[in-house]
Structure formats: C-alpha cells, structure tokens
Amino acid sequence: MSTLVLDNGAYFAKIGYSHEKVSVIPNCQFRSKTSRLKTFTANQLDEIKDPSGLFYILPFQKGYLVNWDVQRKVWDHLFGKEMFKVDFADTNIVITEPYFNFSSIQESMNEILFEDYQFQSVLRVNAGSLSAHRYFHENNSELCCIVVDSGFSSTHIVPYCRGRKMKEGICRINVGGKLLTNHLKEIISYRQLHVMDETYVINQVKEDVCYVSQDFYKDMEISQLKGEDNTVVTEYVLPDFSSIKKGFCKPREEMNFTGKYKTGEQVLRLTNERFAVPEMLFHPSDIGIQEMGIPEALVHSINNMPEEMQPHFYKNIVLTGGSALFPGYRDRVYKEVRALAPVEYEVSVVLPLNPVCYPWEGGKLLAENPDFEELVVTREDYEENGHYVCEEKFDV
C-alpha cells in the first residue's frame, strides 16, 4: 500500500508519495486580471500568461483552514488524474494541520479524507512534529530540539523532547511571509509605484532582493549614502510578461546611479526596504505588532521548560519554513539567541538544505517507519468509532 505525504501549508502544499520526490504546489486558486471569469487551481498558475494583478483565493486565514470549497478544489486537482492519480482504495495519507486546531476543522477533515475520498488510513500531524522526527532521525543521540517554523501566516516555536511536543513551550508570532509581502507592497506603493494589486510580482521581488541584516543601524547608514558608496541599493527590473517574463536584479556594474533608464523598462530602486522588511521577524513592534521577535520568543519558550532540559534545547534549534531562506537569517538568529542565552550553554542553530520541504521529508521517513501502522487511524476504525478514535490517537 502506498502512502501520500501532504504538508498542507497555508500558501504551498508540499506533496508526494513516500517513495518519490516532493512537489511544491500553490495551495490556492487564482483569478487573473485578463480572464476574470476563469479560476486557476494550484499549479495551473503556470498557464496564466500575464500574472500581473493576480487575485488569490486562499483556503487558509490566519493559519487555519476556513474555506473548504477552495481546499476541496485544490485537493481534487492534486489527487486527480493530471497530478498524482491517487488510487484511494490502496493509499494511506499523512497530512499536516496547524497547532491547536479547532475540533470542528478536524472533524471536517476526517469526514472529507475518510468519507469523500475514502483513504485507507489517515495520520493527522503538525508540520513541526514531522520536522522534529526528521531531525531526531539524523541526530539520534539528541533528546531535545526546538523547531522554528516560519510560514505564510505566522511563525511557530515548538520544543520537542524524545519526539513529543511540549505544549507549555509553544509560542506563536503573528508574522509570516504574507505580512512581509504586504508590508513591502505598502512601502513601494508609498515611495515609488502603486503595486498594491501586484501580490504575485512583489512576492517575487521579496524573495529576490530581501535579506536579514546583521547590523541594522550600520546598514541603515550605508543605505543613505550617495552613488557607488551605497552598497545596499539595488535595481530590480519588473516583468512586463511579454519580453520580460520574470523580474530580475540588475548586475551592479549595469546599475544607473543617475536615475535615467532604458525606455520600456520599469525599474524599482530598492534600498533600506531590502532589510527593513525581514526585520519584522525580529522586531514585530517596528510596525506596531506588540509581540516578541523570533530570538526573544525562542528564549521565552526554552525558559518555560524544566531547567535540566534547557541546555539541550539551546544546542538544537532547527529553522524551517519559507522565511528561513532569507540570506543572513540563520546567522542573525544565532547571534541574538547567543546574546540572550546563559553564558555556560552552547548555542547551535541548524538551517536545513531545504527548510520548506523539511517537514515533508520527516513525513516520508515516518511513512517508512515500521511502527507507522500503529500511528494511523484506519477507515475501518473510523467507520466503527467515528471522530472519537481520531481524537484519541492524534496528538495535535
């Protein structure tokens, strides 16, 4: 029997059979400015010739699954013949869900997976638990780790000991990729060009040009210098979706410090927004969100753990999620946690090669685990005992 692993994120679904490679696919629907009436689902995004003014229809709001119509359409597309051709009668599914998920959402998910799709067995689990499983698999001498999962809607910090999550240490910061992109849209719209409708394009700009500063005030000073001395400034050529399909940064030697550009080229000049946007992960209060940044929340979470465990958490900090891809992110987390942690404790921060798919890889390992059958709920079990058996078995 094959097992499908689905890390069902609020923006990307990471999906694949446990014996195959992972695919990263948008977990949403789109409408384009040019064809308002047609709805595109998941990876059909590639069919849209002009993704400017793209309108997103998301199944998740604030990290929770609220729009089942959209989610069903995305799943129909993923499980259907053009994607994974799932034979439900012969397939188990490992699927992720948020921390402290509402029981009404859990029950709807059980019903859809068991009754509508008719999977043979289901395992509902948090993405962080899969990341921890992957980490302990590679570092089997370690007893504890703390996972920082910086996703689309929020960032979660979750300590694990011997594979079990320590609920009293879980922290949620309401800053994620969506907020960073929206903030960048506002800054650019205020300073240069109205881009409030251009979520797709500006998300790409964020991924291409933003980085985490190691010294915020020093970078701020550099970004105010004139001409060649300003090493922060970059010029980003926006796509027009006819001759330029994808935006790109100009090489430094081609940058124009006089402010005159080739006709037909739309260029954004980006200076301090390059590092001021990811800074919100470290100081949410910069934009009025009265919450701790990631390093403070990490230390706060570890301080809630029994004292004898604390040194183990400090030396096993694991970074996952899309925001972990910002250049400088790992170094900054290390630097700030090191400054806050007791001197006698060792601090080690691990950034996996692929922080976006790290939980999926944990799910793949779990599916191949000899004890896998003891973790799942079978359809037979569910038909006999209903939601109660899922509540008992899944620690989410």
TrEMBL record:
Pfam families for the chain: Actin
Keyword tRNA-binding: no
UniProt entry tagged with the keyword Cytoplasm: yes
Subcellular location: Cytoplasm, Cytoskeleton; Nucleus
GO cellular component: cytoskeleton; nucleus
Classification via InterPro entries: Actin, ATPase_NBD
CDD domains: ASKHA_NBD_Arp6 (cd10210)
Keywords, ordered alphabetically: Cytoplasm, Cytoskeleton, Nucleus
Family per similarity comment: Belongs to the actin family. ARP6 subfamily.
The protein's name in its UniProt record: Actin-related protein 6
